[in-house]
Structure formats: C-alpha cells, structure tokens
Specification:
The protein is α/β, with parallel strands linked by helices and about 350 residues long. The chain has eleven helices and 15 strands. Helix 5 (about 95-115) packs parallel to helix 6. Ligand F7E binds near residues 181 and 296.
C-alpha cells in the first residue's frame, strides 16, 4: 500500500519540491495550506504536480490546534514533514509574536497530536542554521552550541528542542534537519538570492535600473533546495531519529552572489565607495546598478554561517552536488524567462 505523507507548507519552496519528490517515490501526498483570500499554488503548477491525482490539498492553519489534530486524525499518515513557518528572518523582528506562534507552538500541537493519535507517525522538523547565530565554531556541526540572533532563530530553536524532547519522553520518531540556506528558481523574492536574480534579470532586460540591498558582506552557505528535500526524506527512513545538518560546506558573500548574477548576463560591474555609499556601476552604460539601503539591515545580523554535512553524508549517504555558480545559473535562466514573458 502507498505510504501517506503530510507536508505542511506545501505552497512554499521546499513544500513544492518535497511534494514532487514524494510523488515520484509513490507516496500519497497530503499538502496542507492555510486559508488566504487569494490562494497561490504557482510553485506546484511550475513543477506540474498541481493536478497530480496522488496530491491532496487540504486547508489547515497550523496555528489552530484543533485543525491540526483533526487533520492528522483524518489522514492517519505514516510521515509528517513540518515545513510550514514564518520563514523570513527580517519579518521576525517586526512580527516576533506571530513568528513564535507559527514556528514554535504549532510544533507542540503536531507532536502532541501524534502522541495522542498514533505515536508511530514519523515527524520531520525543519530546523535551521539560524539557530547557531553568533557562533565562533566554523564550520558549524551538530554539536555546535546554539546562539540565535533573531526571533526566527529563537522560535526554531524552541521547536527543535520540542522535537528532541518528544523522542526522549515518548519515543516518538521526531527528526530535526538543521538546514543551511537553500535556494532555487522557486525561492520567494524577499530572500536575497532571488531578489538579486530577479533584479539582475530585469536590469538585463531594461525593465529596471538598480537594485537596493542591505549587508552585502554577510556570508551564507547556499545549496540547491531540490537536493535538500531528498535529505529530509532520508532522515525519516533511518532506524533511529536524530539531528542532521544539510549544507554545502562553502560560504560566499552576498556581494559575490551579485557578481555571479551580473556575470551571467554579461554586464561588467565595478564596485566603488564604502559602507552605505558603496555602489556597483554597470561599466557598459556607467549607471549605478546596485545601491545599499539601511532598510535591509537587520537589528542583529549573523556575519557568516557555513555547515559541516559529514554526519548526513556518513549516515544518510547524502551530499550536495550543485555549485553556487550552477545554482545562480538556474535561477537567472528562470528569472530571465519569467521577466521576458512578464510571468
Ligand atoms: P517558505 O517558502 O517561506 O514556505 C513557508 C510555508 O509555510 C508556506 O507554504 C506558507 O504558506 C506556510 N505557512 C506559513 N504560516 C502558516 C500557517 N499558519 N499555517 C499553514 N501554513 C503556513 O519556506 P521554505 O524556504 O520552503 O522553507 C521550508 C521550511 O524550512 C520552513 O520551516 C523554514 O523556516 C525552514 N528552513 C528553510 C531554509 C531555507 O533556506 N529555505 C533553511 C532552513 C530552514 P503561505 O504560502 O500561505 O505563506
Ligand atoms: O538573507 C543579507 C541578510 O533573507 C541572507 C531563510 O530561508 O535562510 C534564510 O534566512 C543574508 C542576510 O536569508 C539583503 O542580511 C543583504 O545576512 O536571503 P536571506 P536568511 O536570513 O539567511 C535560513 C537558513 C532560514 O532558515 C530562513 O528561513 O543576506 N542581505 N541584503 C539581504 N537579505 C535580504 N532578504 N534582502 C536584502 O536586500
């Protein structure tokens, strides 16, 4: 009989890729989405899984404990992948309470429902490198102490410990994947890589003159989302629940990513000035194409994050293969196409 999996956050980047992956594995996928006035399933449509007969889309707001309990009871899944979250770090500074409610409390609702309905359901929690925060350990590994720097990081750390506690207390198979940044053509435009590829595509097509960014010296470990969802699945197929890092082991600055994106469209740039006055100039037309705006600075920043994925490689046989150059190319191609056709 086909396995049944619930994915919370099916409308998000990872939810869409994981949905595609599990359907290919023969699962019946129950994708949960919250009620909004204008629902958008664009990612599921881009991956051409929206009409898949084994994909069932169900309304469930994960902040509503009754809705969570009833949904799990109705579906009786084998596995639950909890990907739904308020996932934008910047917004977490402006909306700390709803971030906590969505990212922390909901995990208790889910694990408590599993405990009461069927403690054999396997649970994946989407943890994050943001939990490491201001750390001196480099690269970060599963034993690196946590020091989160944002309400988002704090909310995810609460959920992470809740998952571990439900295993230790009730033997529930709860795994936590500490994933470093992962991007794709399906990434939301508020995140820096997609903001850059969308902006640079528009500049190349003469639809925009300049993009505004915040701290371009921040370094992140960026992988390809499609490869990371396979790691999530592998975590739930092991004999013991555990915590695993998924990352690439390489860190690049936002500035380096900007350079890669402009290189892809053959626009030569030079950087001038410092601090808030730093700009990139398009040397083909001598116009400023990147500016710095304090609007995008965070109240507390994490300067650099880079992960050690050797535990996942050893135990799960997982490793990343997409370089940042290839990832940037994939995202640029998609954004050139979308902007050319105004999609
Ligand atoms: P995303 O694109 O922002 O997707 C988040 C999803 O959560 C969306 O489907 C969103 O629905 C849903 N959601 C938010 N609040 C909800 C609620 N109250 N009830 C039901 N659904 C709700 O995030 P992502 O990049 O796919 O990331 C997936 C998960 O991994 C998140 O938990 C994120 O925090 C975590 N993570 C991501 C990264 C990364 O680099 N991508 C790294 C580490 C961890 P709407 O479409 O209605 O907004
Ligand atoms: O920022 C800097 C910004 O918003 C990356 C989420 O998926 O990964 C993601 O969180 C860096 C930061 O991602 C702009 O200050 C500069 O240092 O793309 P981001 P994030 O905050 O790392 C983690 C692992 C998650 O778990 C999260 O869910 O880029 N930056 N200028 C900028 N960032 C944005 N968004 N916009 C700018 O203009």
């Amino acid at each position: 009989m086909a396995k049944k999996a619930i994915i919370t956050g099916i409308t998000g980047q990872d939810g869409a890729y994981l949905g595609e992956f599990l359907l290919q594995k023969g699962y019946k996928v129950y994708g949960l989405y919250r009620r909004v006035s204008s629902p958008s399933f664009w990612r599921l449509k881009e991956l051409q899984i929206y009409k898949n007969p084994n994909l069932y889309l169900l309304e469930c707001d994960i902040t509503d404990s009754i809705s969570v309990f009833n949904t799990i009871k109705k579906i009786m899944p084998d596995e639950i992948y909890n990907l739904a979250a308020q996932s934008f770090v910047q917004t977490s500074f402006e909306q700390p309470l709803s971030t906590m409610q969505i990212n922390s409390l909901s995990v208790t609702y889910m694990l408590e429902s599993i405990r009461l309905i069927n403690p054999h359901i396997r649970f994946y929690q989407a943890s994050t490198s943001e939990m490491f925060g201001k750390t001196d350990d480099e690269p970060q590994h599963e034993q690196t102490p946590f020091a989160p720097r944002s309400p988002y990081g704090i909310s995810k750390l609460c959920a992470h410990w809740t998952s571990i506690n439900y295993y230790e207390s009730y033997n529930i198979f709860a795994c936590s994947g500490i994933l470093f940044n992962h991007e794709s053509p399906l990434r939301g435009k508020e995140f820096v890589t997609r903001k850059i590829t969308d902006g640079v595509a528009k500049i190349a097509l003469n639809q925009l003159e300049c993009i505004e960014l915040g701290n371009i010296y921040a370094k992140r470990d960026w992988g390809f989302a499609k490869e990371y969802v396979e790691g999530m699945w592998k975590m739930l197929q092991t004999s013991m629940p555990d915590t695993f890092i998924l990352s690439t082991g390489k860190a690049y600055s936002v500035k380096e990513f900007v350079t890669l994106a402009f290189e892809y469209v053959n626009i030569p740039i030079v950087w001038e000035n410092e601090g808030l006055n730093e700009v990139a100039i398009n040397t083909k037309n001598n116009r400023i194409c990147v500016r710095i705006s304090p609007k995008y600075y965070r109240p507390a920043e994490i300067d650099s994050l880079v992960g050690d994925y050797s535990k996942a490689e050893k135990i799960l046989g997982w490793n990343p293969s997409c370089s940042l150059q290839d990832l940037c190319k994939l995202m640029m191609e998609a954004d050139l196409q979308r902007n050319r056709h105004k999609l």
